[in-house]
Amino acid sequence: MTLISLLTCLAVGAAESLVSGPVELVCDNFQFTEGPLYLRDDKLIFSDIPADTIFTAYREIYRKPSGQSNGLTLDSKNRLICCEHKTRRVTRTEEDGSITVLAEKYQNKRLNSPNDVVVHSSGTIYFTDPPYGLPGGLQNPECELGFSGVYKIDLSGNLVLLDKELVTPNGLAFSPDENNIYIADTQNKVLFRYDVVEEGNLANKTTFCSLPGPDGLKVDNDGNVWSTASDGLRIYNPSGELIETVAFPEVPANCAFGAADSKTLFVTARKSVYKIQTLVVGIQPAGNRK
User: Rounded to a whole number, what is the largest CA-CA distance in the chain?
Assistant: First the structure.
């Protein structure tokens, strides 16, 4: 692995830094990397959207075709949940390798292009559905809904619209106690925070912070929010105050905590995947929690 030694953290206060090492290159020469996910068997996988492939960090093909997968996560049974950009659906991979479609239409209209996904400890699945996979966005003739949505798939398999006011809903992540969820609105340059209330619905939307081009994000066990942005990786404390910005050689798109101690943050950035060592423990997807 190549060490990117010239890149440094642009910290608000050096003593506050949550990063313990430089940015390191994991692998490169892809088309557009997204959806990093660290698996139980010490394996990192991620989406290469234009390549229609899920790769491992060793450049092995994990799945092809992938439906131009984007965001990836695990449910409590360690099954892969996948946002499929091209096929415009959310799927689950069963233990035997078969694919179950979890969401494809809302009120008999096709979804836009599911982007990112998280699973609550209750089993409820939340995902965002901007029109990035449709050239021309909401104006594309193939866009049936006419809006970008935030949805949940409840325990009965019902698809429920939670918010259609975001312009480009993107990355999302829960707070440590799962009482809040953070959702990026890329075009509006905002991270919103919602309360997760009865039956897994969302309420009390507030602006958590403003930042340029927010994309994928994760939260650590202390409640700090790690969000990719157009100027690097931004880290915010639970009050929405910027702790630091970490510079990368390419614009980051998403991130995921991993490794045995969950203190390594893997970052997908355009044609490459990078990693940084942190001083905190990151929250793992449901399937990785012990």
Answer: 53
Token pair recorded at residue 132: 């990035």
pTM for this entry: 0.94
Q: What is the DSSP letter of 83?
A: E
C-alpha–C-alpha distance, residues 250 and 88, integer Å: 27
Tell me the pairing of strands 149-153 and 159-163: antiparallel
CATH number of 9-288: 2.120.10.30
* Residues 157/163/169/170 CA torsion (nearest 10 deg): -40
Alpha carbon distance 60, 41 (integer Å): 15
Structure-block tokens of residue 140:
């594309």
For the record, the structure tokens of 127 come out as 């995902």
The mean of the pLDDT values for the chain is: 94
The DSSP output letter for 112 is S
62-103 pLDDT, tens per residue? 999 999 999 999 999 999 999 999 999 999 999 999 999 999
Strands 9-11 and 272-277, bridge-based pairing: unpaired
Q: How far apart are CA 42 and CA 34, in angstroms?
A: 19
- How far apart CA 246 and CA 271 sit, in angstroms, is 18
Rounded to whole angstroms, how far apart are CA atoms 224 and 69?
A: 27
State the amino acid at position 44 in one-letter form: L
